[in-house]
Design brief:
The structure is a homodimer of 334-residue chains. Chain A is 32% helix and 25% strand. With 334 residues, the first copy, chain A, is an alpha/beta fold. Chains A, B: GO terms for molecular function: kinase activity.
Chain lengths: 334, 334
């Protein structure tokens, strides 16, 4: 795969350099650690700090969601790799306003370890209270009874959105975490992979698929899914994804949801809207009301081909969170 | 190339169906013509109507820019093909508020013919005054002395943004067109293609390139550029694109510009920011001030690989236009 790069070992540093130069009115790098980026926007005193992070290569996740209404800071890892505790701790110190900091990240072993260590260091060395909420929305990654073992994928967007709003509403740390956990508990995602991405350093494809094959339930680092099968139509793919979600999280007539049809990187918007079209039809047939829709590239995997569907079941509090305005470099909602 | 499609002949209809279902609070299809989409937002009486359009496959261009602060309606063509006069006329009738309608589109033979015919029909049949401004920002497509012969590419985004703002400011039709033409006159783009897209109906790649080749000055339907060459580094690509722009439109110390680094479809945001990084360095070395930056997929070519750089030289009026808030399904600016 051809890439616009200089030294493959410096892609993250160079991306960050470009990013802060493009959006100096939104975000800056910490002087102590260039992998620690924090908002330049004024945040209210006593607001709980929202810290997100994870590997690079998922842009707009995660740095694109630092600004007003979502996260206050981000710790940036190498491509598809967790950030180390140092930048996490740096962000924590920078964004704590005395009300503590909520860490929001996907359920991956490396992230769990590094964010956990940073949380301990924040407590012991800096006396900052930290609580953690994990994203585990990927239906394909573990059985229903073991939701806590699941990976976080595009549903993390809803967690950031909900918890970011909660912090703006003036919730305390426990309530921000409760909101994040509710968003996660009410979200289910299912994805399909059509073509791999390539890591800049190796140039190797992240997985292999036949010319007319797709992979159902693929993880967003190329983790194997549930099954490989022949490339299906958009309607069949949408039906499969929604069916798997609704089998896992039954919704009934009158339920309200937020829908996210997320592109993995190289799938045109045209195709995402064709998928959305069928998702909407299925939900509409079941009397499930779509409260708000997001269609686009929200959490990607470099230039991977494919998409995921996420449904978040809403209550009044989550609706308020979803409606809350956001102003970040890669995502703005009025 | 694998695609998430149903019937390849229905991709545009199905995309539009999904699109209006996803964003009913922004946009609706005309009852008379499904390729005619207009804003559902209230617009001021006596505001000049802004009509954009062109082929499909460039999403977010063009339908993604209908909403508040940019366009009031869009006429949608087949993939990479101009819309016919009918939907253009339908949109014209729907968005005219008595102050006339500005047509904004790229300088392509099919668009020039069809928008021109629709403008005549609007005048003769509906007594609606229409004026047209073309986008011709692609430096690669004709020599400097023949700027009017050039293609419109990503710089069209700046034309829509500027003219949309002008209409909101209460400018009359002549002044809206003046603003659009100034935005075009002050904008230059240069692109580089790394990999082709495939048309859904044929599955054929839009152009051919060797495994380590890139094409400088590629058009966004796969039109041949200036030259093919070996794949260069991101810095070299940025330098070449900016040099060609500045040779064509010399800028001096103290000049101010808006910068757009536009992805063609499958190029990760990471790479676009690495390109931006070098663009910013070059401009900064020359004392050229970046007033505002846009980095992302603004006008794409399905899943084509590569990017373009656009610079728009600013004066006070264009700055006011660039600062004007926008609220559209695929682009929001506070």
């Amino acid at each position: 795969m051809k890439k616009l790069l200089n030294n493959p070992n410096h892609v993250v540093e160079e991306m960050l350099e470009g990013y802060v130069k493009a959006h100096p009115d939104y975000i800056k790098q910490s002087n102590q650690n260039k992998r620690a980026l924090v908002t330049t926007r004024q945040t209210k005193e006593n607001k709980v700090g929202i810290l997100i992070g994870g590997g690079s290569g998922h842009e707009p996740g995660f740095l694109g969601y630092v600004g007003e209404g979502m996260a206050d800071g981000v710790a940036v890892g190498n491509i598809f790799a967790s950030p180390s505790p140092d930048p996490i701790l740096e962000v924590t110190k920078a964004i704590d306003k005395g009300a503590g900091v909520a860490y929001l990240h996907g359920n991956y072993a490396g992230d769990v370890m590094n964010f956990g260590m940073a949380a301990e260091m924040a407590d012991l060395e800096e006396d900052i209270e930290v609580k953690i909420a994990l994203g585990s929305d990927d239906v394909a990654s573990a059985p229903k009874e073991e939701k806590k073992k699941r990976r976080g994928i595009a549903g993390e967007f809803f967690i950031f959105k909900s918890a970011g709003a909660a912090a703006d509403f003036g919730y305390d740390l426990d309530d921000v975490i409760r909101m994040a956990e509710k968003a996660n508990e009410n979200s289910r995602s299912m994805g399909v992979g059509l073509s791999p991405c390539a890591l800049p350093q190796t140039g190797e494809p992240s997985f292999e698929l036949g010319e007319n094959e797709m992979e159902i339930g693929l993880g967003h680092h190329g983790e194997p899914g549930i099954e490989k099968g022949p490339l299906a139509t958009a309607d069949e793919v949408a039906e499969r994804l929604v069916t798997d979600i609704l089998t896992d999280m039954p919704l009934t007539n009158q339920d309200e949801v937020a829908v996210l049809v997320n592109g993995l990187g190289s799938t045109p918007r045209m195709e995402l809207y064709i998928i959305f079209r069928r998702v909407e039809q299925i939900l509409s047939e079941k009397g499930i009301h779509i409260y708000r829709s997001y269609v686009g590239d929200y959490i990607t995997s470099l230039e991977m081909g494919g998409c995921s569907v996420t449904l978040m079941k809403l209550d009044d509090e989550l609706k308020k969170g979803i409606d809350h305005p956001v102003n970040c470099p890669m995502f703005v909602q009025k």
